[in-house]
Design brief:
Pfam families: Metal_hydrol. InterPro entries: UCP07580 (IPR016516). It comes from Acinetobacter guillouiae (Acinetobacter genomosp. 11). This is Metal-dependent hydrolase. One of its GO terms (molecular function) is hydrolase activity. The protein starts with 6 loop residues before the first helix and ends in a 6-residue tail after the last strand. It is mostly helical. It has one domain. The protein is built from 13 helices and two strands, in the order H-H-E-H-H-H-H-H-H-H-H-H-H-H-E. Helices cover 61% and strands 3% of the residues. Helix 3 packs antiparallel against helix 4, helix 3 packs antiparallel against helix 9 and helix 4 packs across helix 8. Strands 1-2 form a two-stranded antiparallel ribbon. Bound molecules: fe (ii) ion (FE2) (2 copies). One fe (ii) ion binds next to helix 6.
């Protein structure tokens, strides 16, 4: 039976202390389909601030993230059956749907990297080894904490992207811009679902922190190593190129500067996860989300509107 009315009551019972932050998200996380029609000719290997190394981090992330998203989807599906609360079940369905589309669209995007000499097949092979032989063999409780950890990092990236929109405006590659802005919008939109699921089914603090550190090592060292090597695998002559080394400092700053870098300026947000009473909504992005939904998805003027196909919100099932 489909119900819309008693949502608030059910929700208040499930999340007594979080109601003000979360109530707006009930039945409001659509699964959106896009067709970006990516073309290899349009890909800018220096998309982020015209810095190749910094852009390489996000290229490597685009490849490895699809494996992380598969883990999130598998783990969310497994645990959805154990959730009694219909609202959380519905939100998990939204999470699964959004991540499935992210993974599919990033795969399409990653295909355009291949003719541009980016080592997509090599990185896919490496990611498969790591995920198939380690992460996907973890016991479900650890996978659940890893899912929450991954979703914390994507929420950090999303908040950074939404508060530093300028980094997307230094390239003519509109589709890379559209891809990341859409993905980051939705990461922020569903940022609390994996965490709430973890808290309902486990809430074990040491295990939550273990998942955080596994995600940190994967996204920091694993993707970081891929990013470090990528410009040389794409073009070995980069090793001898003065202009390449000259822009390296700019790449470093974009990633690690304490003032404005993706990681450097987000350290407080990243490690806030270690606080025992942390919750994703302690970092309020409600206004940012409203702003970006209008800017990206407005039927008349939205940046993403030319690529939009359809959307639906999963039903609440009691
Ligand atoms: Fe995603
Ligand atoms: Fe996500």
């Amino acid at each position: 039976m489909l119900l819309a009315k008693p949502v608030k009551k059910v929700f208040a019972k499930a999340f007594p202390s979080r109601l003000p932050n979360l109530k707006d998200q009930i039945a409001n996380i659509p699964i959106r389909h896009f067709n970006f029609k990516f073309s290899p000719d349009e890909l800018d290997v220096k998309f982020f601030m015209q810095k190749e190394w910094a852009t390489a981090y996000f290229a490597a992330l685009s490849i490895f993230l699809t494996y992380g998203e598969e883990l999130v989807i598998e783990t969310a599906r497994h645990h959805r059956d154990q959730i009694q609360d219909p609202v959380l079940k519905q939100r998990l369905t939204s999470l699964i749907g959004q991540e499935a589309i992210h993974s599919k669209v990033h795969e399409e995007y990653n295909e355009t990297m291949i003719p541009n000499n980016l080592p997509v097949q090599l990185y896919r092979f490496l990611a498969e080894q790591v995920f198939n032989h380690t992460f996907l063999k973890f016991p479900q409780p650890l996978k659940l904490s890893m899912m929450a950890g991954i979703e914390h990092f994507t929420a950090v990236f999303a908040q950074y992207a939404m508060t530093h929109q300028d980094i997307f405006n230094h390239s003519l590659d509109e589709k890379t811009r559209a891809l990341w802005l859409w993905h980051m919008l939705e990461e922020s939109e569903h940022k609390d679902i994996a965490y709430d699921t973890y808290q309902v089914l486990s809430a074990n603090y040491p295990l939550r922190i273990s998942g955080f550190f596994i995600a940190l090592i994967t996204l920091g060292l694993g993707v970081g190593a891929g990013a470090l090597m990528l410009p040389f695998l794409r073009r070995p002559m980069n090793s001898f190129s003065l202009s390449f080394w000259k822009e390296a400092k700019g790449s470093w700053d974009l990633l690690f500067s304490r003032d404005n870098g993706v990681f450097g300026s987000s350290l407080g947000h990243i490690f806030d996860y270690l606080r025992p009473d942390f919750h994703p909504n302690d970092h309020d992005t409600t206004e940012l989300l409203e702003y970006f939904k209008k800017e990206l998805l407005d039927p008349e003027t939205g940046t993403l509107t030319p690529y939009f196909v359809k959307a639906f919100t999963p039903a609440l099932r009691m």
